[in-house]
Design goal:
The protein is an alpha+beta fold and 101 residues long. It contains 2 helices and 5 strands, in the order E-H-E-E-E-H-E. The protein is globular.
């Protein structure tokens, strides 16, 4: 199996995202990764969902590993920026970061 360049976790839990925005973002992430050519090859990205990342505020929360960059208040527009700028071009979307490991 080919390794992944990055792993993106989307919190889909009800506390951080009571209006279920996290679930919608998780679905949108699949199409954005496909559109940007990030599903196969050396720069491929694995996506995962989790019911809780332990923050429970400021959601939806999206985390990118191996960098350990946590994004808060993610909207569809911000998610697109994360995919294009961070995942594809390697530039963290600094103004949306609320934590780094």
């Amino acid at each position: 199996m080919e390794p992944y360049a990055r792993h993106v976790l989307v919190c889909t839990g009800g506390f951080c995202s009571p209006n279920r925005q996290g679930r919608m973002l998780y679905s949108l992430l699949a199409s954005l990764l496909q559109r940007e050519g990030l599903l196969f090859g050396p720069s491929r990205v694995k996506r995962g969902e989790t019911p809780c990342l332990g923050v429970c505020a400021g959601g939806p929360i999206v985390v990118v590993y191996p960098e350990g960059v946590w994004y808060a208040g993610v909207t569809p527009t911000l998610l697109e920026r994360i995919v294009v700028e961070h995942l594809k071009e390697g530039r963290v979307v600094e103004e949306a970061v609320f934590y780094r490991r």
